[in-house]
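Morning F.,

Quick status update on the modeling queue. The single chain you submitted on Monday has been processed. Sequence for confirmation:
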Amino acid sequence: MRLVSRVFLLFVISLVAIALPAAPAQAQECGGPIIELSPKYGLPGTDVIVHGQDFAAGVLVDIYYDGDPMATGRTSSNGAFTIMITIPEDCSGHYQVLAQGKYSSVDTYFTVKPGLTVSPDNGPPGMTVTVEGNGFASNEDGIELLYYLADGYQTVGSGIVASARGSWEMSFQVPVSPRGEHKLDAQGAISRLYDVEGATFQVTAGLSLDKSMGSVGDTVTMTGSRFAAGERGIQILFDGQVMATDIKANSEGEWEASFDVPEMPTGEHTVTAEGDQTRKEDVGGLSFQIEPDIALSPTQGHVGTNLTVTGHGFIAGEYVTIMYDGGTVETAETNDQGSFETSFRAPESQYGEHQVAAGYSGENHANAPFTMESIPPGRPALISPSDGSRVGLIAKETPTFEWSAVSDDSGVHYRLQIAASDDVTASGGFADPLISVSGLTETTYTLEETQALSIGSYYWIVQAVDEAQNESDWTTARSFRVGLLPLWAFIVIIVAVVVLFAALIRARVRRRIYYDGW
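Structure tokens below.
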């Protein structure tokens, strides 16, 4: 019987010895050093103050958490110290905190509890937030995330499984809910609602824009919700600049108003709103990106038209390059608001649409179209040589051609073609021209020696072309003939005339000698 009692007593002592380390307690020797934790429990990531006293004066003290070194400090002249540690990621339970000095070592326990953190912790319904759970049981499953409303809660996450270190993460969209604080809580297969330290999400008044980027002068519509019912004095602020005022919310706290993007440099800007009862700090701000933009005036014209380029939303105080079809035509410097204005004349270019661009650093940042006129110039009238006329007496002539002048806003030049046949193509030009000359700025042209025409019949036509490459119709072909005799016949005649003249002179001389000598 005595043996049974002793065995029972040993069993009870063993149970007590096993249970003691599991209970959070402060270890203290009688009259010796002690440590205290503040707080004594919390989530992983909690900052804990370890306060010690009655240690040796001026000695180093190392703090260990669950056997791992965390921090080191030195005691004061009265043997006290205060050291902060941050609780690492781990599962729920009790963990030893040990303070070890030169002459003593004291421990106590910190209790890790499950809890939640939410980021961001405020905003309007519909925004996406991320909730982190820490301090849950290792690999705990069946975790549900709850979002509390006035009349209960809504499950916003389920089937969540914690990691081996008791952590998990999930994101959700904040449900439609009234303005104010809303609790977030969680429970799992092991962790109960009363075990979990919940988090709070603050539902604020909401703002939205119908566009998040645009150019200076664009109209943007802002919508507000969850402002105070019937709230007055609401105004829209763009980088602090008042854009719209005297807005009133309806009985549901909702409102809508529009504003024009102000003249400001390119980049991200903050748009927000405030009212008599709603602070802009509570609402937050929305990002709006101003993009560079240019306007061209006029948008169509002819070669030489004076074009004015107005730019907004560029970098402030920067030189901007103006390009026409990729070629630089002008530069301008922006003002403090990122705006500029400059002019240039439309260069020679083909009819149709062309791109005017503005940019810097070798890149285009804004474009505007310019339409070059497509009206062809009038058709010239042929003057000389006249139809059917003859040019020169012999072959290898270099006649002069003349036609009437044509005017055009884009400026004009002429093309001349000469052929031995009046066969023309569908465009009206000669099918097989012997001579073709372009870019003539005068209304006359004399053939060069290398272009001299042999005896025979020819045809000629002229076309006007403006600097926008619009072409008039070709004129109707006119004929002309070069020379009366071929060159060899002309030479024979000349020789015969010379011989005859010489014979006459000789006969006259002989006759005079005869009569004088007689």
